Task: structure prediction
Amino acid sequence: MKLLLFISHNGGISRRDAFGKVRNGDVTVNGVVEREPSRAIDPMADKVMLSGRAVNSKEYAYILLNKPAGYVTTCEAQFDQSGVLCLLPPDWRHLKPVGRLDKDTQGLLLLTNDGILANRLAHPSFDVNKIYHVRVVRRLEFREKERLEKGVVIEGTKTAPAQVENITFDGNFTEFDLTIHEGRKHQVRLMCHEVGHDVVRLTRIAQGPLKLGSLKPKAWRVLTGEEIALLAAVGRGVPVKYSSKYSPRKSFKNSTQQPFKNSTRQPFKHSTQQPFKRSPKKGQPGRKKT
Result:
């Protein structure tokens, strides 16, 4: 295990702070100052000290929290009253949130010190669904629902296909469940804004196999053995590999497919047509006519 990850997971500090501590010489391994964050260590055999205190390996823990609005999930705020970690007992404050919920969003938030699993659950390539219960201003029209499901362009990039279900109307408001697997910043709010609706309340009610259920705001619970097994199964899944057919970086160099296969146009190397010639720069002689 890398020294940086070990300190971050078990020392109660962020990776950025752990990196700075190592570089500044505040970390020793077996009594020797270590300044290389990527050094491999054995958590069971090596003795790691951070600013004079021992850093011991902690067992993996998994907590499900119903995050209320008004709290932030950044690790930099873990000792601040506005951070979600202040909602947990001191013994659990070394855990890290899996993904992020913005300050005004509430609902399901998983916290763990299992860094590998956390990365797989949060990374969009593993296609882990997240379900949000959304309340927006105005009635959601059918064409707007279709746009959300097919994907809309936010910040210059089109969102992946989504699913809209359980639509209900309440006066001038609409509530529905939106399923996505990406985790872009403010994604749900930006998607709804793009189709003409402002979000007034946003709650994450599911992430992969985990469900928020009846857990009240600010309340938390330890995951069951069955839930941990389900998460591990998701984490071991094979990442989604997008077809190179749609990749702009596809090269024909190692492919049997020929470029311009269905076109009469031919690339210059197979054509008698000459490519555009640049005009000579000032002070440089032009090509001699033959």
